[in-house]
Amino acid sequence: MENLALIDSFSEFKDDKQIDRVTLMAILEDVFRNALKKKYGSDDNFDIIVNPDKGDLEIWRNRVVVADGEVEDPNEEISLSEARKIEPDFEIGEDVSEEVKLIDLGRRSILALRQNLISKIHEHDNTIIYKQFKDLEGEIYTAEVHHIRHRAVILLDDDGNEIILPKEKQIPSDFFRKGDNVRGIIESVDLKGNKPAIIMSRAAPIFLEKLFEQEIPEVFDGLITVKKVVRIPGEKAKVAVDSYDDRIDPVGACVGMKGSRIHGIVRELGNENIDVINYTSNLTLFITRALSPAKVTSVKIDEEKKRAEVILRPEEVSKAIGRGGHNIRLAGQLTGYEIDVLREGAEEDVELSEFSDEIEGWIIQEFHKIGLDTAKSVLEHDINDLVKRTDLEEETIRDVINILKEEFEE
Q: Which of 61, 154, 200, 407 has the highest CB neighbour count under 10 A?
């Protein structure tokens, strides 16, 4: 009964941690064997009988009967006179099994045993949680904001599991309050010590890919394949889609009538601008599509250097480059090629970078931001227009124009 009473006192762990009885008893046996090793030096000659149905556990020590005065190892041997106190008809050489009561281990050992059990159960729980979330890597998960820190948001799911959403894995426009439900991708799960570290991301390209799976039935059913996703989180994304069924327009199916299907995804991502394009194995056509909304005149590809020279009309260049260079950067990531943009008739033009001795780098960068990277592209624009579109003073722009004009007057 002493053993049973103690086992029952451990049931709180089973109830709190939702651990099944069989697993609890297996952990108990392991904990008791460690306690026996500490007290007796070895647990080899002990039988531990576990009864999960009753929640009971018995410990029996097996020793060999030897003549009085010849006991060399008191853990494995018992003198004849001591054995006959247990049963009067024991003889030398026979085996004696004697039940060990928990109280025999001592109060301190029982307290240590209890603490060890708590530790083992926590370890078991953490292993289960680790395996559960490891299987969810790359999948969308929803959890509630529990605590907001400077460098991360701490989330809790319905089971009380802690999930970390680091600042760098959030969309820049993300703003959370305690109690908000947050969707993201389970990006990584690692064991730090014995505790699982679950990292969520809303900035990863796969989050956008999985949103397509959730929100667009044809993608979920496999009728449309998402070939590649590239993102600048919160700013712009490009998604290449394909279908093996010629009757399906993959771009139209993903975007929906007047953008109805993609609207929810855009809203989830903080109004990220999403370009959906038709994938093709024709590299020239793929690069042309990737630079959308710009209209490309021609493409020259160097497969060995993984570079593409793209020629456009002057009015299309700023579209190809995009705000902050986002469009051309994502097009390069999507196609795997470094893309150089040239204007039609640019053979007689001069790159702005060639004037770095006369024009400061930050000024050249301001022109690059609005898609102007050659001398003629700047000279084609009105001064007042350049003042409005850049952060440069009128006087600075006039100085630049005078320097550029000198180049062509020579």
A: 200
